[in-house]
Amino acid sequence: MNLPNKLTISRILLIPIFIILLSVPFNWGTWNIGENNLPVAHFVAALLFIIASSTDWIDGYIARKYNLVTNLGKFLDPLADKLLVSAALILLVELGLAPAWVVILIISREFAVTGLRLVAAGEGIVLAAGQLGKIKTATQMVAIALLLLHNFPFSYLGIPVATIMLYISLFFTVLSGVDYFVKNWHVMRDSK
């Protein structure tokens, strides 16, 4: 197994630890950050999320640079991203840090695009992620990290940057989903 695939698997293995950090009521205290209090467990979960998210960029970079792209990597990398983002968003709803309707739209888009990719794969067509999809992923990762940090460091300024980033990520999630289906509608139209 090559290094990019090991990094992708490490991202998947970090997800249960991330879930435990946000689900178990650890009493590690809180930090006063401007208008909010940041539980230490949320801070640790945010750091773990940032580390896990960064492996997405690192494994892709290494795979492309050293020609280590494999079918296993093509399967596991998007799966790892979807698992990590979905787990984080669902937990943010449970914690009252993100509205459920936004999370439902984001996760629904992921299911729809995955469905289209499965239909394409059945026809022997590989659908690559576009630039809008990469922007979508980046804005989601930033929004989730800021929400986990309870808007730190912007909480000192009283500007809800975390919430703004969540809505920016929703915009790019919907836009990239529409773009993906428009550009690849022939797959659905021509499928047997």
Keywords:
mainly alpha, lipid metabolism, Phosphatidylglycerol_P_synth, 4% strand, 6 helices, 192 residues, CDP-OH_P_trans
Q: Brief overview, please?
A:
This protein is mostly helical and 192 residues long.
Question: Can you describe what's shown?
Answer:
The chain has 192 residues and is mainly alpha-helical. The chain has one domain: Four Helix Bundle (Hemerythrin (Met), subunit A) (Up-down Bundle). It has 6 helices and 2 strands, in the order H-E-E-H-H-H-H-H. It has helices at 3-23, 40-65, 71-94, 100-122, 131-148, 161-190, and strands at residues 30-33, 36-39. A two-stranded antiparallel ribbon has the order 1-2. Strand 1 and strand 2 (36-39) form a beta hairpin. Helix 1 packs antiparallel against helix 2. The longest helix is centred in the C-terminal third of the chain and has 30 residues, at 161-190. The radius of gyration is 18 Å and the shape is globular.
Task: Give the SSE layout.
Layout lengths: L2 H21 L6 E4 L2 E4 H26 L5 H24 L5 H23 L8 H18 L12 H30 L2
Function: This protein catalyzes the committed step to the synthesis of the acidic phospholipids.
Pfam families: CDP-OH_P_transf
Family: Belongs to the CDP-alcohol phosphatidyltransferase class-I family.
Low-confidence stretches: none
In which order are the strands of the major sheet placed? 1-2
- Could you tell me how far the N terminus lies from the C terminus, measured between alpha carbons in angstroms? 35 Å
How much of the polypeptide forms β-strand, as a percent range? under 5%
InterPro entries: CDP-alcohol_PTase-I, CDP-OH_P_trans, CDP-OH_PTrfase_TM_dom, CDP_ALCOHOL_P_TRANSF_CS, Phosphatidylglycerol_P_synth
Function: This protein catalyzes the committed step to the synthesis of the acidic phospholipids.
Protein name: CDP-diacylglycerol--glycerol-3-phosphate 3-phosphatidyltransferase
Family: Belongs to the CDP-alcohol phosphatidyltransferase class-I family.
